[in-house]
Amino acid sequence: MSLSKPIINLVASYLQNLYIHPIKTKAITSCVVGSAGSIASQMVSGEKIRLDPVLAFGLYGLIFGGTVPHYFYEFIERIFPQETSAFPLAKKLLFERLIFTPLMQAFSLYTLARFEGKNHKAALKQVNALYFTVLEANWKWLTLFQVINIAFIPPMLRVLFMNLVGFGWAMFIASKRRQQSSKKE
Hints:
By secondary structure, the chain is mainly α. Helix content is about 85%, strand content about 0%.
């Protein structure tokens, strides 16, 4: 009982900040979740914790991981409104899976590589090596979560929901990138 009060207060504070400062709250949440996913991935693999991937995932989350999805979910709600659109869930899901996801995945892989200090050529090489494997895994493993997200999660909480799913996804991406890096060495 005594532990529940701080948790309830934390959730209430988070929701209040999400309502008052949605972009800032989503950006900070994405930063924390991305960094934690990178650290967890490194710990699970038994490697020594490297700071550059942690900072790359954190910076990516802070700058793009909260803001881009925030505006994307607002955009799809406007172009496929529930009331006036036939099959709005299917349209939103197809748009997200077939247009947004491929673009965002390429952008994410490239940006993470650059944030780790790789030059343009090395970042493109990493994107070329990982893109289709990661995109296929995204379509295979995250589609159900996107259906749940778009169908049942209120728009204000969609980025948070996908951040929680993204913790595991960040671990997957980090492990794929680490495998690709070790192949080069």
